[in-house]
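Dear H.,

Thanks for agreeing to be a second pair of eyes. The structure we're designing against is below in token form, covering all 627 positions.
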């Protein structure tokens, strides 16, 4: 929390750094902006590279890794645009899961992005907006990381660039770019962390507190889980610094606590109602049924394995140990370089010692309730085995995601290591000329030899870092084709059939397993008609969170028919239940488009509702007179 100005004539690697976040020397601040522009330009190119496969046919391609998540986020961009266009409460919607609706604060809603970008979504459409934003979020995270590193922690722009590139495009981050842009939208987190670590500045507690409160409040509407991980990491950093520098911590405690109280109060004031709505509003829930995420820990072998989406990755490996998310997957060269950097820096650098604490604490915490090794559950208990899975917040957490803090620590460590190497190569303070002339007795040769060894070691250090990072360069994300919605949907042929207050029931009804293409009908028409079912988390009859709407008899019958590809024997009870379900959904029309199960679904619905009409390119059952 101390903010000293480092003497630019000193080699930072040769002195004990007494700051977690330090202001750069003025000479560094006066460097040309060209280096900053080049860094940002490189990050933008990487963002374009990652999303390259989407741009070949941006309107008909989705992530082949998480296609349903991809479609959900397209739906979210459409939700933000619809809320702004119709001036509706963005915290809740009935355009999905009609008539009950969806609590958007209780789901991953990305409102902090979709609302301000609503005009662009209305102009470009949610598919284009999704691909644009995904690459931009990755690049922006790298850019803000670079800014914080270059302005507050390291002198070398190259060091900041390497650290920023890793923080924005680490394998664990790029993995989440497969359909989960909320986990790559981390551009505020470096700013939050830097602000927390500067709360102890004397005379600036009001400014720092207000800035922190605004940043935290905004992050709530982007990704609460990443905000929680950042808060836990900052807590560990502050405790580790206090243990190492108790006197400095005591001197700054007053300003720190005052700024923290002001920031926390402001953030709470700005987010009080949305957070209340999240836990108490309609369609809110308490925990997830069965603690579904509690057992997802990081496999120990994953730390030294190359991720699938890197140039050194192998898709076959993830079938062995990739049973959960690929949040670390550093590859063995980076693990060796990181360990070597910690060994060399930890004795003389407070930031390095704090990073070592972060790596140890969050690596252990990410293991989960059982230690996994190369895809096999061992008999060794992990730390989560001793934590009740029904604790508030804990029940919602996925242990493996705690390793994302390790990712951040490694990124900062790379910047520190590169900066230490750069510092070793800076020219020393010139000696008086007379003293230099007296060095002709052979000491000059010794000095030259030492300089040569230093240059060789420095180049070897650079080469090691580069060699560890090159295999982690991301490849374009895998994408697959998805059929466009029927012309009946996109051209508005449905309008005469769906009056205000009624729903269009697509077949299959969207869920977290079935109906990916029918969920997109809603997104790509700008939510102009409400639909039942959907892909979200909502309450079951006990108030626990479950994925998707509780199945009704008709939706269950549709899904089982799709799985078996055979129409079962239909009874009068099935027909009665179908009418009851359509009445519950407030249906006015049932629509079946083309798809791999079109024939069997048409036969099923004909058995339930009678012969369909062929309207444009869909099969249609007008049920307004029956429900």
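And this is the sequence the design step returned. I haven't edited it by hand at all.
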């Amino acid at each position: 929390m101390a903010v000293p100005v480092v003497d630019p004539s000193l080699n930072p690697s040769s002195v004990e750094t007494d700051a977690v976040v330090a202001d750069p020397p003025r000479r560094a601040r006066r460097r040309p902006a060209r280096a900053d522009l080049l860094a940002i330009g490189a990050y933008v190119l990487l963002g374009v590279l990652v999303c390259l496969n989407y741009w070949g046919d941006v309107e008909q391609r989705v992530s082949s890794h998480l296609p349903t998540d991809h479609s959900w986020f397209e739906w979210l961009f459409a939700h933000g645009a619809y809320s702004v266009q119709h001036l509706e409460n963005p915290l809740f919607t009935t355009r999905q899961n009609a008539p009950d609706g969806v609590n958007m604060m209780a789901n991953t809603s990305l409102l902090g992005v979709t609302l301000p970008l609503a005009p662009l979504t209305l102009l470009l459409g949610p598919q284009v907006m999704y691909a644009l934003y995904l690459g931009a979020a990755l690049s922006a995270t790298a850019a803000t990381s670079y800014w914080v590193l270059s302005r507050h922690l390291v002198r070398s722009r190259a060091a900041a660039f390497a650290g920023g590139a890793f923080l924005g495009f680490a394998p664990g981050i790029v993995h989440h770019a497969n359909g989960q842009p909320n986990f790559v939208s981390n551009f505020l987190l470096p700013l939050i962390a830097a602000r927390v670590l500067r709360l102890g500045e004397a005379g600036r507690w009001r400014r720092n507190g207000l800035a922190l409160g605004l940043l935290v409040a905004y992050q709530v509407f982007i990704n609460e889980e990443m905000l929680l991980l950042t808060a836990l990491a900052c807590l560990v950093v502050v405790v580790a610094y206090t243990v190492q520098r108790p006197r400095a911590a005591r001197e700054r405690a007053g300003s720190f606590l005052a700024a923290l109280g002001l920031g926390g109060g402001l953030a709470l004031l700005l987010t009080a109602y949305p957070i209340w709505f999240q836990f108490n509003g309609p369609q809110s829930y308490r925990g997830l049924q069965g603690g579904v995420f509690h057992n997802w820990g990081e496999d120990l072998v994953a730390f030294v394995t190359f991720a699938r989406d890197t140039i050194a990755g192998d898709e076959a490996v993830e079938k062995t140990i990739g049973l959960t998310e690929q949040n670390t997957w550093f590859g063995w060269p980076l693990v060796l370089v990181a360990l070597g950097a910690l060994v060399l820096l930890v004795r003389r650098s407070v930031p390095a010692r704090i990073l070592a604490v972060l790596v140890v604490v969050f690596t252990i915490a990410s293991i989960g309730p059982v230690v996994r090794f190369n895809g096999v559950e061992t008999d060794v208990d992990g730390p989560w085995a001793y934590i009740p899975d029904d604790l508030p917040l804990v029940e919602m957490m996925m242990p493996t995601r705690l390793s994302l803090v390790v990712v951040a620590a490694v990124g900062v460590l790379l910047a520190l290591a590169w900066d230490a190497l750069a510092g070793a190569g800076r020219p020393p303070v010139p000696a008086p000329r007379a003293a230099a002339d007296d060095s002709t007795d052979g000491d000059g040769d010794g000095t030259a030899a030492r300089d040569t060894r230093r240059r060789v070691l420095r180049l070897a250090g650079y080469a090691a870092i580069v060699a560890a990072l090159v295999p982690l360069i991301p490849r374009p994300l895998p994408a697959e084709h998805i059929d466009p919605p029927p012309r009946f949907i996109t051209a508005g042929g449905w309008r005469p059939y769906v009056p205000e207050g009624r729903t269009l029931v697509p077949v299959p009804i969207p869920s977290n397993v079935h109906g990916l293409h029918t969920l997109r009908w809603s997104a790509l028409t700008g939510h102009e008609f409400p639909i039942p079912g959907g892909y979200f988390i909502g309450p079951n009859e006990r108030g626990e969170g479950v994925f998707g709407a509780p199945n009704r008899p008709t939706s269950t019958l549709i899904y089982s028919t799709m799985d078996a590809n055979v129409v079962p024997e239909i009874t009068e009870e099935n027909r009665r239940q179908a009418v009851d379900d359509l009445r519950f959904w407030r249906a006015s029309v049932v629509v079946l488009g083309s798809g791999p199960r079109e024939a069997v679904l048409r036969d099923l619905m004909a058995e339930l509702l009678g012969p369909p009409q062929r309207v444009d390119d869909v099969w249609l059952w007008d049920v307004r007179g029956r429900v």
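Two observations from my side: Confidence is low (pLDDT under 50) at residues 1-19, 21-30, 428-441. The first strand starts at residue 61 and ends at 63.

Warmly,
E.
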